[in-house]
Amino acid sequence: MSILGPRTLLATIALAATLTLTACDPAAEAEAPPAPPAPSAASATVSAPASSPSHSSSPAGSGKHTLAEAATAGGLTKATGADAVSDVPIDPGEMREGMHLVVADYNRAGQTSGRRILFVGVDSVPEDPNKRREHLWRGLIDYALQNGSTGTPTTAKPYQPGPFGGSLECLSLPESASTTDVICGWSDTTTAAVALFPRTTPADAARLFAAMRADLEH
Residues 108, 112, 116, 119: is their CA dihedral positive or negative? Predict the structure, then answer.
């Protein structure tokens, strides 16, 4: 085996030192960023929210409402006794558990005879209450035409619904006189109701119906 001379040995040691410093150079390490540490199981798990927030605002008077008979409604007096309505004069549509049907007729102030104001309403409506109102409307028109009303129904017009909101509309059954029989109906988020007002005007019937609603709907 050959023996290295002093100069050759020093050159070899210098080269080895240079290679060692290059391998440990911090600048060379900075060129490649270190890999991020693996997340722990706790930080990697993200819980979904329990429920999504609603982005729609509820109008005043919205929400679930119920109907109940009232001895007086809008200043009218509920008829009682043998002359009061004793059955359901129109088909209210499918009635499911939890729904309430209110059928009543009301006398105007001082009325002792003649046709009364007939009210029919349902609450906790499972489908679109507007569709239930349309169903009640058709039944009440048939009833009216069989009980003294004449003429072809006009197009329903909207009126002020009152504090419970929703929609209130009235239509008339034209006759020869200036006042006619008027049918009004309301619907909101859970209720639908109609009423027949003999010999009145749509505007007067609408005001009276809104006043009745304040006593019949809760």
Answer: positive
- Look at residue 6 and give its three-state secondary structure: helix
Return d(Cα 137, Cα 173) in angstroms, integer.
12
The length of the chain is 218
DSSP for 42-108 reads HHH--PPPSSPPP--PPPTT-S---B---SEETTEEE--STTS--S--S------TT--EEEEEEEP
- Residues 9, 6: Cα–Cα separation, whole Å: 5
26: which 2 tokens? 């911090």
Q: Which residues on adjacent β-strands are paired with residue 167? A: 187
In single-letter form, the type of residue at position 185 comes to: G
What is the identity of the amino acid at 16? Answer: A
Beta bridge partners of 159: 168
The model's pTM is 0.70
Closest Cα partner for 175 from 198, 157, 206, 149? 149
**Would you state the pLDDT for residue 136?**
96
Residue 27 has a CB neighbour count (10 Å cut-off) of 6
* Rounded Cα–Cα distance for residues 107 and 206 (Å): 16
Q: What is the pLDDT of residues 17-65, one digit of tens each?
A: 443 434 444 444 444 445 444 433 333 222 222 332 222 333 434 578 8
Which stretches in the chain have pLDDT values below 50?
A: 1-33, 35-61
Longest dimension (CA), the chain: 140
